[in-house]
Write a structure and sequence with these properties.
Length: 145
């Protein structure tokens, strides 16, 4: 069965374009590997440890692109129902601000396990810029890095 316009090819559903974007897929894979490192999973036993700078900030740099891509997909499909919808820059900025204030200022004041790291604030900003430049595009016009 050829593409029928309903997102089906060969009788199978494909993931939405937002969730197939190479940056999103790579980001998810890297994020999952970072979780395996953090939990000491035997699945990665013997793998070389990433450099300290990556261990400290890479997950934070990936947080906004991954979260905002999922938000964009959900809003396009279930709220606005418009494939051309993109998140306004003010929403991306607001997400960066909330993450920065919550995780790097407020949470460390109430949870001894959390630490404030202003490098993470920069990592969130970098992630927001990556999302805004490469991922926050109308459906079908995503630019590849």
């Amino acid at each position: 069965m050829a593409g029928d316009g309903g997102g089906r090819m060969s009788g199978r559903r494909r993931l939405p374009a937002e969730l197939r974007h190479p940056l999103f897929v790579a980001g998810m894979a890297i994020y999952l590997v970072l979780i395996l490192y953090k939990t000491g999973s035997p699945l990665i036993a013997g793998w070389p440890r990433p450099p300290a700078l990556l261990r400290a900030h890479l997950a934070d740099a990936l947080a906004l692109p991954l979260l905002l891509t999922l938000e964009l997909w959900g809003l396009r499909r279930y709220y606005f129902r418009r494939p051309a919808f993109v998140l306004p820059p003010s929403w991306v900025f607001s997400t960066w601000l909330v993450f920065s204030l919550w995780f790097e200022w407020l949470l460390p004041r109430f949870d001894a396990r959390a630490t404030a790291d202003w490098g993470d604030v920069l990592a969130y900003a970098l992630g927001g810029l990556v999302f805004g430049y490469w991922l926050n595009r109308p459906a079908g016009t995503e630019t590849q890095p």
